[in-house]
Write a structure and sequence with these properties.
0% strand; oxidoreductase; EC 1.13.99.1; iron; inositol oxygenase activity
Length: 149
């Protein structure tokens, strides 16, 4: 599944009703009654941290940051972990799986998404000029000075 999609997806039933349905009809889970409800194996309000998503660069970076002892605020970690869950922050999907913290962090994720895709500049950045600023951010949010890849 990770080879055929570019954005994060939930494993709940609505995923199968999305664009990937044509590719996944032969998956035994498609006909499993436990997955043929709105919630599937999840309970309402369980929180996104309890929802199995397709794994990709988002979750990898989130795990690296957590293992490295980052001091980034929870909203920043939420954005990093779920920024490719486009159906959530662009289309309002998965609201029924979110807890209160997810709903609060979603606001920040929606703001960030405006700058995530299609916002790249053709202007070349003078790396040496901006380097001190980014080094100060690294110092602030990575106090252990070791990143655990």
């Amino acid at each position: 599944m990770f080879d055929m999609i570019i954005c994060s997806q939930s494993t709940e039933r609505n995923f199968f009703e999305s664009f990937a349905l044509q590719y996944l009809k032969e998956n035994p889970d498609y006909n499993n009654p436990a997955y043929n409800t709105k919630l599937g194996v999840y309970s309402e309000g369980c929180g996104l941290e309890n929802v199995l998503l397709s794994w990709g660069h988002d979750d990898y970076m989130y795990l690296v940051l957590k293992a490295s002892g980052t001091t980034l605020p929870p909203a920043a970690l939420f954005i990093i972990r779920y920024h490719s869950l486009y159906l959530m922050h662009s289309d309002g999907k998965y609201q029924y799986l979110m807890n209160d913290e997810d709903r609060e962090n979603l606001k920040w994720s929606q703001i960030f998404s405006k700058y995530d895709l299609y916002s790249k500049s053709k202007v070349h950045v003078d790396v040496e000029k901006v380097k001190p600023y980014y080094e100060s951010l690294i110092k602030k949010y990575f106090p252990k000075k070791v990143i655990r890849w």
